[in-house]
Amino acid sequence: MHKLLNKLIFVCLSISLLMVSSCSSVRIKNKAQENITDIDLYNTYYFMKLSSELNDSLGCSLDLNFYNENPNLFITHNNKFDNLSNIYYVLELMHDANVKPSYMLKEELSGYLNGLQTNIGNFAFSIKHKEEIESTHEIGHETYLSSYSALKSYAYLDITISKDQASKLNHWIDGVVSHSDFWDSLNIESVGDLLMVLEISKLAKIDLSKHGDDIHKSIFKLSDEIKDYLKKAKLSLFLLNDIERLLSIANVGKEKYFTPDTITFLLSLQTKDGGFKLFEANENSDLLSAYYGLRLLRQLEQDIPRREELIVALKKYGQKNACFDVSTS
Fold first, then answer.
1. Which one of 73, 173, 179, 315 has the fewest CB atoms closer than 10 angstroms to its CB?
2. Element containing residue 264 per DSSP (H, E)
3. Residue 256: which residues within 8 A CB-CB, separation 6 or more?
4. How much is the pLDDT for 316?
């Protein structure tokens, strides 16, 4: 799953919430709109996700209608928006802010998304990535996240994929789950692969009922593996987040998996500034880890320790680190 996430995450992963970043400074509500492609969507996305989790504006707001008014931005092939992960970030932000995509934006992005589906049936992150997939016949792992991001983007745009697209996608997923190797190789480290396959199948309305036994056997094994990883201090927020999402989508009770020991470990990853670190050995918190930590606490119905400290730290971060496109009130 780490390799998958690396496709989506592109900068500033290990930033302390209280450190100053070197990313470009852009404010969307000034008139320098030509600098829009300098926006750090990674930090913007997770900063705003944290704002939502904390139910606090953190002193920042986004003018997301700019994307509705400038849909051609996404098909300018010489900038970073020619990449599915960045389109996905923007559509997620718009969805969270209840900003509906304009007709023009739908028109521009639907054509682009359609062009990312490969002859195998999965989706690529970019046209170049599509060419690589088709030349190597990559049917799994590295394409799970790109395919999920594409389908989620269609959903945010309220676009239904065509019957031909759905047929190709169904054929691809069936090829993945019909191989015993897929199920035999699943363990706690590859739980993200199963999660993505289930998420893709849900979005595309692909029936996996005939693989129900395989799914539940794979999930059942996780409880013992979590205990083993706890003893070896190998658990991370990545794994815990993927496991929780998997249990939710598979409609499996979490008590057996998220035991008091597991929750104690999760809380031990919180840092003094109220954020979270990805691994136990890390020293500093970062936006991604802070979001994962808060999301897990909410899903597990736990209180947020050091909530006020985190809000203060994030407000300072938003004012001092112009890594993302914000207007500070």
1. 179
2. helix 260-268
3. 223
4. 81
